[in-house]
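CO-FOLDING WORKSHEET

Operator: S.A.
Ligand of interest: zinc ion
Run index: 228
Mode: holo prediction, single chain
Checklist:
[x] sequence pasted
[x] SMILES validated
[ ] output reviewed
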Amino acid sequence: MLPVRGRDGQALRFLGTRTAWTPIGDGEFFCPGCGGDRNYQRLTGRRRLTLLGVPLLPRGTAGPVVECAACRHHYGTDVLDHPTTRRFSAMLRDAVHTVALAVLAAGGTSSRTALETAATAVRAAGFDGCTEDQLAALVDALAADTGRVLGGECGTSLTIELHEALDPLAPHLARAGRESLLLQAARIALADGPYTPAERDALTTVGAALTICADDVTRLLAAARTPS
Ligand SMILES: [Zn+2]
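OUTPUT RECEIVED:
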């Protein structure tokens, strides 16, 4: 028994499969292995049966896979669906900016307190130089532009803007993060008094775009009203 086993074991070591990888693209991705923004190569492979390390017979293709330039791990290409940290921060910053504009557009730009609350939130999200006056000018420009293009239907254009900013972000944001965005928006609306019907509409649209269910939106909007 023993010599046979030994021979089998040897045979298994002599025969193998080797994959030769060819790069077919590159870019930057978030590596789940080493946990950060890294360069990657997209690779496609050709498998060959080897005897004593010498390729003999083709054994089909492998991949494509994504190889991290830092840790050299291979992943399925679905790993590219995740945004990089850099891209994620930019999406979050744009989302806070758009949400602030939407709430200000609904509530008007006449309240200094609302503008200050909005500008503080936008600066905290990463637009360091954002001022109250810039936000007011943007909201006015948006209203003028919407008036011209869509014949005065202000809500429609902002709904599109909100979905463009929030839809790509929502799947990558944990529930607490999505709720926090809505609460920020609610605080801007509340800065100059109770919600107006237009503000409530805008906040409902924000909540829906963030995939927060209607009951939770109602609960969060009520919670934002209660000073903590
Ligand atoms: Zn890595």
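REVIEW:
The first strand starts at residue 15 and ends at 31.
The CA atoms of residues 49 and 57 lie 5 Å apart.
[x] output reviewed
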